[in-house]
Amino acid sequence: MKKLIFVWIFCLLAVSCDERLEELNVEKVNPAEVPAETLFANGVKEAAYMMVNSSVNVNVFRLYAQYWAQTTYPDESQYNQITREIPKNFWDRGYRRGLQDLSIAKELMIANPDPTLSAAGNANKLAIVDIAIAYIYSIMAETYGNIPFSQALDVDNIAPVYDDARAVYDAQIDALTTAANTIDESAASISGSQDIVFEGDAAGWKKFANSLKLRMAMMLADVDAAKAQTMITEALASGLILSPDEDAFVTYYSEAPSTNPVYEDLVLSGRRDYVPSNTLVDIMNNLNDPRRVAYFTDPIDGEYVGGIYGTANAYGDASHIGDVFHTPTLPGVLMSCSEVMFLLAEAAERGFTVPETAETYYNQGIEFSMYEWGLTQVDYLAYIAQPSVAYATAAGDWKQKIGIQAWIALNNRGYEGWTTWRRLDFDGLNPAEGLTLEDIPTRLLYPLEEAQLNGANLDAAISAIGGDTKTTKLWWDVN
Fold it and tell me: What's this model's pTM, rounded to 2 decimal places?
C-alpha cells in the first residue's frame, strides 16, 4: 500500500513539474530583457559608487588624499594595494558594472528608440549615456594609464588589447564634445525616475559634460596646452556648472539599499575604522577654517584633533568625522561649481583665455564651497580676509594657493582631492610612518588577475607606461 502511495505522489509531482517546466525555465532574478533606462540608472549608480564609497576594498582615495586616517588597520594608508585587491575591485566596478551596463543600455536605445519621444529626445538619451561612459573611461585612464578600450566590452574577447591612455582620453573628449553639441535642452531625455543625477534634465547633463571637459583640459595642460585651450574655450561657450544648484550629484535616500555609501561604511557597518587625519585637521586649524564644524565633530579640549596619518589610531584619541557624513541622504557629488571655479583659476594662472582672473575664480571657489557645506557669506568673508587665505598674500606660488584651497573644498571627494595633488604637487601632505612623500601612490596597480588572463597585452601596457608601480608617473603627470 505504501508503495502505491509513493508511486501516486511521484506521478502527481511529475505531471505538475511537466506543466510548470516552461515557466520554471524563465529566470526571475535575471530576466532576459532589462529596460535600457534601468541599465543606464544602474550604470550611473555604479559609477557614483566607485567615486563616493569609502570602503578600503574599493575606494582608498580619501586616505591617499589624507582626508581620513585609519584606526585598527592602517595598511591602506601605508599604500598596500594588494592584500585587499583594491586595483581589481576598482577596475571591476568601472568595467564589469558601470561600463558594461551603460554599453548595453546604449545598444538597446539604438535598437529600440522610444516611440513616445521625438528624434531629439532619443538623441538626448544617447548623448547622456555617452557622457556617463566618458566619465568612467576618463577616470580609468587617469588612474591606471593604458587600459582596454577599443576591445574592452566584447564579451567574446577575454584578452582585449590595452589602448594608449592618451588616445582613450582623446576619444572621451570627442564624445563629450559631440554629446554637448547634440543635446537639445528643450527636448525630453532619460525619464526622471531613471536619471539619478539630473532627474531627466538634459541641460544639467550638458553642463556636466562641459565641466568634465574643463577638468580634462587641466589634466592635459602640461602635455598639450593648445588642445587644453581649445577645450576650455568650447566648454565655456557651451556652458559650465556655475552655481550650487547646478551641481552634478547622485541623490540618495534614507532607507537601504539607496543610502549614501559613506553612511553604510560609517554607520550601518557598526565599525569605527576612520578618523579625520592630522594632515587635514592641522591645515584647517591653522587657517581658522569655518568648514571645520561640518567636516569634524567632537573637539578635544576645545580643539579639533586629527589622527596621525599612516598609523593605527585609537578612535577616542581624535576628533571624529562630521555629523553630515553620518546621514544617509548626503548627496554623492560628481562635479560641483566650487571645483569648476578652482579649475578656472588654474586655467587663468596657466595663461589660458578665460573671462576672469585667477583671484576672482579662487575666491568664488572658496565661497561656493562654504555654501555647499552649509556656511554663510559672513563665514566666507571672514575667512578670505585672512592674509593666510587671501590670494595676494597666501603662502606659496599659484599651484600651492589654488591646490590647498581646492583640496580643502574637495573633502569627501577623495579621488579628486588626490588627483588635484597629483596634478599640482602642492605641499601639505605628510609621509606615512616609515615612508617618504615619494611613496605616495600616483596610480593604482593593474589588477593581478590581468596577468593571468591577459598577460601579453598587460606586459605591453606595462612597458608602454614605464612600469607597473604605485609611483609610476602617468602620461599626463609630467611635472
Answer: 0.93
